[in-house]
Write a structure and sequence with these properties.
By secondary structure, the chain is mostly helical. It has a single domain, classed as Four Helix Bundle (Hemerythrin (Met), subunit A) (Up-down Bundle), CATH 1.20.120. The chain is built from 5 helices and no strands.
């Protein structure tokens, strides 16, 4: 856990990196669906914005509960959820992402050593803690950004097919 400051710095830089990246993608590529079961670039952007509220609540639970118990969040698996994220206007999605990230960082920057070491129960993971969640959020951001770049630039024969 010696890299907490580095994780927080990276999380603080992600909104700008995401925004600059998205602005480099031609508008006509945002809603292009590359195949059955593939999200569009715009849907990935929307997803990143939409999950930030849930992640903020998870961070808050670590701050306020001794040993929180979480349920998995799997997009499109709940009865009321569509298979793809609802499409947000790109500027609104980027703004929402940045606003929630600021709220998350405010909480995390004020967490003490005891809170950083708190563990939780999460059925998807063998271990779960505030530290793991924080690192997970960073990796989640960049996985989706990588996927957006792949959907934008990769030729069909080399495009990763996800199950």
């Amino acid at each position: 856990m010696h890299d907490i400051r580095d994780l927080l710095k990276a999380l603080s830089q992600t909104p700008k990196i995401l925004s600059e990246f998205v602005q480099s993608i031609p508008e006509e590529k945002l809603d292009l669906r590359r195949g059955e079961g593939f999200w569009t670039v715009a849907e990935h952007i929307s997803h990143l914005a939409q999950v930030q509220a849930m992640l903020l609540k998870r961070f808050e639970r670590f701050m306020n509960e001794d040993h929180p118990e979480f349920v998995p969040y799997i997009p499109g698996k709940a009865n009321e959820e569509p298979d793809t994220p609802p499409r947000m206007a790109t500027a609104s999605a980027l703004d929402q992402f940045a606003r929630y990230r600021d709220k998350q960082l405010l909480l995390l920057e004020n967490a003490d050593d005891i809170t950083w070491k708190k563990t939780a129960t999460h059925p998807e993971y063998e271990a779960y803690s505030l530290y793991i969640l924080t690192r997970h959020v960073l990796m989640h951001d960049y996985w989706h950004m990588y996927r957006m770049e792949e959907l934008w630039l990769t030729r069909d024969a080399y495009l990763t097919k996800l199950e």
